[in-house]
Amino acid sequence: MAKTIPKQRKEVRKKPEKVKKLHVVLSEVKTMKEILSELKKLNSNLENFNDNQRTLEINKTYLASIDKTLEEINFTMRSMRWSMNK
Length: 86
Known about the structure:
With 86 residues, the chain is an all-alpha fold. Helices cover 80% and strands 0% of the residues.
């Protein structure tokens, strides 16, 4: 007959309280790092938004200038047509 090898029992030890607390602290640090990472992304997005707002204001100024120039050209063309038809 073959001998059977008895199964060894694993000792189930309770984790010391300090180790439990350490795991809690480490998980909180991980969460804080994730929050910090998200805040950095949001800050970057906000900076990009502010840059886009400045660019938009500059473009509005250019468009207003172009619109005024076109109005002047239109007025000049009407004046020339009016004087030619006279």
